[in-house]
Amino acid sequence: MKSLVIYFSRPGNNWAVGYIEKGNTEVIAEYIKEFTGADLFKCDPVKPYSEDYMKCTEEAMAYKKADARPALKAYIDDISAYDTVYIGGPVYWGELPYEVYTELDRLDFHGKTVKPFATHEGSGLGSVESVLKRKCVGANVKRGLAIQGSSVRSDLAKEQVKNWVE
Ligand SMILES: Cc1cc2nc3c(=O)[nH]c(=O)nc-3n(C[C@H](O)[C@H](O)[C@H](O)COP(=O)(O)O)c2cc1C
Questions:
Q1: Number of domains in the chain
Q2: pTM, two decimal places
Q3: pLDDT value, residue 133
Q4: 150 lines ligand 1 (CB under 6 A)
């Protein structure tokens, strides 16, 4: 059986890293792929967040207040070929970006192992694990991995991912 990584990540201007061409969480998703051979699925919104960091925080807060499910450019509806699903993203106001919820709402997690991961700038996993336990009904949700966004491009971060997936 194969593994799947469902994630969100945003290039642009961000806290502590300035302008980045590739989002921090995407770097982690690629490490997971390297170590496990997992397939990657990126939750890619029809309407991208602003490149400006402050504007982006306001947009994310508006989604949170509205409990929004922002539309994605593509979806997956069937995860029956996978036994382990890694689910991650940046921590936005204490939880995953709502684009991830858009995708999760479509999926049947019965019998799956779910491994949560997130990048952040201080809050750790926040409520990522507890929310995934609620949303992925029927899954065995394992201990999550939190990595500081500004440190993902280090050997240490890569090593942490390696140890965690093993
Ligand atoms: C909208 C928004 C909200 C954020 N909220 C938090 C937060 O609650 N706690 C935290 O530690 N970092 C927060 N951050 C920082 C991001 O979690 C961090 O920069 C992350 O690595 C970005 O990942 P990405 O490059 O994959 O999008 C926030 C950043 C943004 C843009």
A1: 1
A2: 0.98
A3: 98
A4: no
